[in-house]
Specification:
3-stranded antiparallel sheet, 14 helices
Length: 395
């Protein structure tokens, strides 16, 4: 109704463009002042919020990116509110793009949304209104970022995106899950090696099939993968290594805690699977190494963990590169098709990111952490050849 829209307008004028919390308090007071009007005000807030979410999509953001940012800057209540807005906006479309995470609409009707939200959050209207305004203020301040796919409602992509065959995908996932679960380095080594072998074989076969005209035209795509603290620099290095080994390009955005990975769809799937698994294996190995250090009477610190993960990422990068070279050497006739694939990925990445900068990483200053991280990377072996002896970090 008109009066509800006017109430929301007054609250927004006070809160959304204010630089301090006083404006938020004023806006929340306006929204919560009349209990009888709260359901209608809540309905208007939902409509406005869905519009802000759509604007975020038009600026290049996707649901996972938005939820990651809200989780970093706000709290769990704000995450739930943001999820509601995403679900409300998504219901307008019969089909969502690939990789588009959605949520179910839990409320019966928009007019009942405010009351249902209050019951779910179990808080007073003022606190709830403040949280909603904080989410809106974050949404309207989002900058534009590089789009990585179509928006909901856009025409279907005319190019086919070949995925990893479901049966093979299931085998890869099962192998990596077992590698993450085992505490025996040799077993994890064998399982991870087999998973990487399947991924490499699929990439080579896919490139050859496309080169022979056995598949419709494909173009590289892109996805975002979260690279969140702590130790985000080492994680970004690891993701870059996994992406490069799988014939993709990764560009890290440290400000928003994600990397954009550019490549063909099946290779992007491989990157997501392998990076996630190796990160889980690395964090588990770091925990075990730290426990061993403490058992030996040596107190470990953040520098130990930072050095451990940098060594782990650095060593895995070299070994993944060797594995990729080995896969190509076994099928030299496919090299032209793979080169064409690489050229297409590089061209797409350069188009998306015409200007990039390099980042100076914090050094590895803990020798024990570097040694243990190198050993953990060796245990997470993903290729057919052993790596050379570890190099010591620069002191």
């Amino acid at each position: 109704m008109k009066e509800h829209a006017e109430t929301v307008d007054r609250a927004f004028a006070a809160a959304l463009y204010a630089q301090d919390d006083a404006g938020l308090d004023t806006g929340a007071s306006v929204l919560a002042a009349d209990p009888a009007a709260w359901p209608g005000v809540g309905q208007e807030l939902l409509v406005r919020g869905e519009g802000y979410v759509r604007q975020a999509w038009e600026r290049g953001w996707q649901p996972a990116d938005l939820l990651r940012l809200v989780r970093r800057d706000l709290d769990e209540r704000h995450i739930r509110i943001t999820g509601d807005l995403i679900a409300g906006e998504a219901r307008r479309y019969a089909r969502l793009p690939e990789r588009w995470t959605g949520a179910e609409v839990w409320w019966a009707g928009d007019q009942e949304y405010a009351e249902g939200l209050a019951q779910r959050e179990r808080t007073d209207r003022f606190t709830l209104a403040t949280a909603v305004l904080e989410v809106f203020r974050l949404l309207i301040r989002l900058p534009s970022i590089e789009p990585v796919g179509p928006l909901p409602g856009d025409p279907l992509d005319e190019h086919e995106h070949a995925h990893i065959e479901p049966r093979m995908l299931g085998r890869i996932r099962a192998l990596l899950a077992k590698a993450e679960a085992t505490t025996f380095p040799e077993e994890a080594e064998a399982l991870s090696a087999k998973a990487q072998e399947l991924m490499a074989r699929h990439t080579v076969d896919e490139a050859l099939l496309a080169a022979r005209g056995g598949r419709p035209a494909q173009v590289p795509g892109a996805c975002r993968i979260g690279v969140e603290p702590p130790y985000e620099e080492a994680k970004a290095v690891l993701l870059d290594a996994v992406a490069t080994a799988n014939r993709c390009r990764a560009v890290w955005n440290s400000a928003f805690e994600f990397s954009t990975v550019v490549g063909f769809e099946s290779d992007l799937e491989a990157v997501e699977l392998l990076y996630t698994s190796l990160l889980v294996q690395g964090m588990a190995a770091m925990t075990r190494a730290e426990a061993a250090q403490r058992a030996g009477g040596r107190k470990r610190t953040k520098t130990f963990r930072q050095s451990f993960l940098l060594a782990y990422a650095s060593r895995l990068g070299r070994r993944l590169a060797e594995t990729a070279e080995h896969a190509v050497s076994e099928a030299p006739d496919n090299l032209p098709a793979l080169v064409a694939r690489d050229v297409a990925v590089t061209s797409r990445a350069d188009e998306m990111f015409p200007k990039t900068t390099t980042t100076r990483l914090r050094g590895a200053t803990d020798y024990a952490g570097w040694e243990d991280g190198t050993a953990a990377a060796d245990a997470a072996h993903v290729g057919g050849r052993r790596a050379p002896l570890p190099r010591k970090p620069v002191r």
